[in-house]
Design goal:
It contains 14 helices and 20 strands. With about 525 residues, it is of the alpha/beta class. Bound molecules: calcium ion. Calcium ion binds next to loops.
Length: about 525
């Protein structure tokens, strides 16, 4: 490029981004719309922008990355529910016992790790103890609602599926659409109750009423997002939309029109990813079509690593491990005029950090009684300042995973020490070389872990043990169409298992993730 052209280009860039991009002060209290898109179980290398060696299956997500800023060291917990809880509360999952999922309280192997047994109702039937995000927590939805935002959750919740106060509309969401539990069959909208009963339950709702809809859940969530966004034109309030796709989490349901090999799991995974990419494009398009592009902060990220390590590469590990493959996520921030297109940021950020960041953007002064772990990232995101975060606590004692802490370049995972800067693939355990650092990090993760509150009694039980639909109130008046749909699925499900086998994954041991295809229950064997 010749010098005059280069200077013209630089001047042009400078006019868009005076003094680099120093917007933190300007965006604080500016009350943008916030759309937070969360994929489920996506691997680091699944979006094309992280995998240049392969033909990209995600042109729309890649385009979003080109329009926005990529975060190269953005981290979450390593499983669905803990990450969602940390996002909503700004607090590490162990502080709310959200490192334990609701369904774990119906699984003997998980309960045994808590010194509990499978509960029985007064009719002697085994059932799940109620475990959910505590209603005393102030969620970011409650903060934004208090600040005058319209708040909507579309998609997966996974922080309580039974009592009304534990459902999304009891935790700050004015509008709800999607499913409450750990996953959903993309077509039947049922899911295996996953402990202790083994059969299908209906789990598809709008404003906490069951919805009878045909279609593929990824497409349905996109369509609902389009409707919700279009309706925002008639409301003066800014909006917070949390779009938690069930894609690309299992079950492996090929999308409509799938023409690949139905016996090839990777072909199905790829098609599910393409479907998610199109859904993300529809949301972006709806924002643009309705004039919300410039005053909307759009985030795209993912809750935890994939089930298969090959989708994590170059990183090691999977979902349910605190190796980088479990906890480092693709992440994009788009806000035209506020975030430099095509830029990236290497500063450390954890999913809790969205809480104080969004609070700053909304100009909220809602009191927060409980200490949060999140750090306001507006200066890193909008001024290019270094991250203020130097530590992440992924897991502490009392979780089924290894206590794991990152400080600076180093990560202690159980007894293993990795230098993430020089060895991001975690191939070389350097614990023996750095005994003092190991001792210091172990002391720190132990000290923080001691802040875990008591679990308390878990006296409330899900009753009936196997409902037709999630949501206590919804179960009370179950429509016939719903019973028919559930019975049709249950009729196809196996009624017997080999001794010691269960239809849910066993609790993980050590560094190993629970094997999603391993059905042997470690307590029952
Ligand atoms: Ca997940």
């Amino acid at each position: 490029m010749n010098m005059p052209r280069l200077l013209t280009l630089l001047a042009l860039v400078a006019s868009f981004f005076p003094a680099s991009f120093a917007f933190a002060e300007e965006v604080a209290g500016s009350r943008p719309n916030i759309v937070f898109i969360l994929a489920d179980d996506m691997g680091w290398n699944q979006p094309g922008f992280n995998n240049p060696a392969r033909k990209s299956l995600t042109p729309n997500i890649d385009a979003l990355a080109a329009e926005g800023m990529r975060l190269n060291e953005f981290y979450t917990h390593s499983v669905c529910a803990p990450t969602r809880s940390a996002f909503l509360t700004g607090r590490y999952a162990f502080r709310t016992w959200s490192d334990w999922r609701t369904e774990d309280f119906g699984k003997p192997s998980y309960l045994a790790k808590l010194g509990l047994t499978l509960a029985h109702n007064d009719r002697g039937e085994p059932t799940r103890r109620i475990h959910a995000l505590d209603t005393e927590e102030i969620t970011i939805a409650e903060v934004l609602q208090d600040s005058g935002y319209f708040t909507a959750l579309l998609g997966k919740w996974h922080l309580g599926e039974w009592l009304p106060e534990h459902l999304p509309m009891g935790q700050g969401f004015e509008y709800q659409y999607g499913h409450y539990a750990w996953g959903i069959d993309y077509y039947t909208k049922t899911i295996v109750h996953n402990a202790p009963a083994r059969f299908a339950v209906y789990d598809w709702h709008r404003n906490q009423q069951p919805v009878n809809e045909e279609g593929y859940s990824t497409d349905l969530i996109a369509a609902e997002a389009e409707r919700v966004i279009a309706a925002r034109k008639d409301d003066e309030r800014p909006f917070f939309m949390y779009v938690a796709f069930n894609a690309v989490h299992g079950p492996l349901n090929p999308p409509p029109g799938f023409s690949g090999d139905v016996n090839d799991p990777m072909a199905i995974r790829d098609a599910m990813l393409v479907s998610l990419d199109k859904a993300v494009a529809r949301i972006e398009q709806a924002l643009d079509d309705n004039g919300f592009q410039d005053n909307t902060l759009l985030v795209f990220t993912n809750d935890n690593g994939p089930v298969l390590e090959e989708l994590s590469r170059p990183f090691r590990g999977t979902k349910n491990t605190t190796f980088e493959g479990g906890v480092r996520q693709p992440a994009i921030i788009r806000w035209p005029g506020k975030v430099k297109p095509g830029s990236s940021q290497d500063g450390l950020m954890f999913v809790t950090d969205f809480y104080p960041t969004f609070r700053t953007l909304a100009g909220s002064n809602m009191p927060q009684a409980r200490p949060i772990d999140g750090i306001d990232m507006t200066e890193m995101l909008f001024d290019g300042q270094p991250s203020q975060r130097h530590e992440i606590i992924y897991d502490v004692a009392g979780s089924v995973r290894l206590p794991t802490i990152r400080q600076g370049d180093f990560k202690l995972m159980g007894d293993m020490l990795f230098n993430i800067k020089t060895d991001p693939a975690e191939q070389v355990d350097v614990a023996l070389k750095h005994p003092q650092l190991v001792a210091q990090l172990r002391e720190r993760v132990t000290e923080v872990g001691a802040e875990r509150p008591p679990l308390g009694d878990k006296p409330l039980l899900m009753d009936p043990p196997l409902p037709y639909v999630y949501g206590l109130e919804e179960q009370k008046e179950t429509p016939q169409w719903l019973i028919d749909k559930v019975e049709a699925v249950r009729a196809t499900q196996p009624k017997q298992w080999a001794p010691g086998e269960t239809p849910w994954p066993k609790a993980p041991m050590g560094a190993e993730a629970s094997k999603m295809d391993g059905l042997r229950d470690e307590v029952a064997k």
